[in-house]
Design goal:
It is a single chain. This protein has a single domain, classed as Alkaline Phosphatase, subunit A, CATH 3.40.720. It is built from ten helices and nine strands. It is α/β, with parallel strands linked by helices.
């Protein structure tokens, strides 16, 4: 009898493990990162009316997770912020595109560890100076493991940037892509608040358009995680500029939606810009050994399940 009970217990254990693997097996095969450049938190999730991001809040939020305590705790400038996102390390770089990240990017990790091709990795430019994101200066990685770059004929035009994203998705079908919607930051520097918020509204519509495009494409539907964030915010007292340690520059938005992210959650735990790289690694099954960040556990099914046990 004891042997029979032991046998039955073993079968139950095996069945439970198999079921758990089946239910919580990750489905993400593609990750797209969209950076809405220079949007301040007080105009995104920090606005109780969400008047400038109605599509992101009303249509996309119920499908994914938002993070209300997400920060750039490094250099609050464009090139440094994007580089911190891609490397998982705090990067302090010239803001003119003259220097590359000093630590490996997620493109380099993905290509080296997973034998991915250059065309499976893309930087789609909204600002020309972000060409430097395609690979780092790390001696063990570098250009041999870099991403493809899609240039733009209309810098700061987010509608053109979206067209370029769609072109790349339809032709080369990359598994890993980052793009920059640059108009919000560009308008912010112009000093007219309404133009700044109008650009944010346009970016909001374009992000929603992109998600619908992803879900209509058999190659990407239900297998793509979309990460929507900012590289930096703007000064708390003067929205025209950014670059210091004020809360307006540091506190930014993060939304993640996809097949492995619980829907409709609001996570108030503190997350940082450098957490995106290891989280992407968790989705696409590669390590990010130089990263200083941590996996955002509530965004990944296997960790979300673990947290509930």
């Amino acid at each position: 009898m004891r042997k029979m009970n032991f046998f039955k217990s073993g079968l139950i254990l095996v069945f439970t493990v198999v079921l758990a693997i089946h239910v919580f097996a990750q489905k993400t095969k593609n990750v797209i990162i969209i950076v809405i450049d220079g949007a301040r938190y007080t105009e995104t999730f920090g606005d109780s009316a969400h008047q400038y991001i109605p599509k992101i809040w009303n249509q996309l939020h119920p499908l994914g997770a938002i993070y209300t305590s997400y920060y750039n705790n490094g250099t609050t400038l464009t090139n440094s912020g994007h580089s911190s996102i891609l490397t998982g390390t705090w990067q302090k770089l010239p803001n003119d595109g003259s220097a590359r990240p000093t630590s490996p990017t997620i493109f380099e990790y993905y290509r080296k560890q997973c034998k991915a091709s250059q065309k499976e990795n893309y930087v789609v430019l909204g600002k020309d100076k972000l060409n430097m994101l395609s690979y780092s200066t790390d001696a063990q990685y570098g250009s041999d493991y870099g991403a493809s770059v899609q240039t733009s004929t209309a810098q700061y035009n987010d509608s053109v940037t979206l067209k370029n994203i769609k072109l790349v998705l339809s032709t080369d079908k990359p598994h890993l892509l980052i793009s920059n919607f640059a108009a919000t930051d560009h308008s912010g520097h112009g000093g007219i608040f309404k133009e700044y918020t109008n650009s944010l509204k346009i970016a909001d519509n374009l992000v929603f358009d992109l998600w619908n495009y992803i879900q209509a494409d058999p190659n990407y539907r239900n297998s793509t995680t979309l990460i929507i964030t900012n590289d930096h915010g703007r000064h708390t007292k003067d929205f025209k500029e950014h670059g210091d340690n004020c809360d307006g520059c540091r506190h930014i938005m993060l939304m993640i939606l996809g097949p492995d992210t619980p829907a409709g959650i609001i996570d108030n735990s503190v997350c940082e810009q450098i957490d995106i790289a290891p989280t992407v690694g968790s989705y696409l099954h590669f390590a990010t050994p130089s990263s200083q960040g941590k996996v955002i556990r509530s965004a990944v099914a296997k960790f979300a399940f673990e947290n509930k046990k």
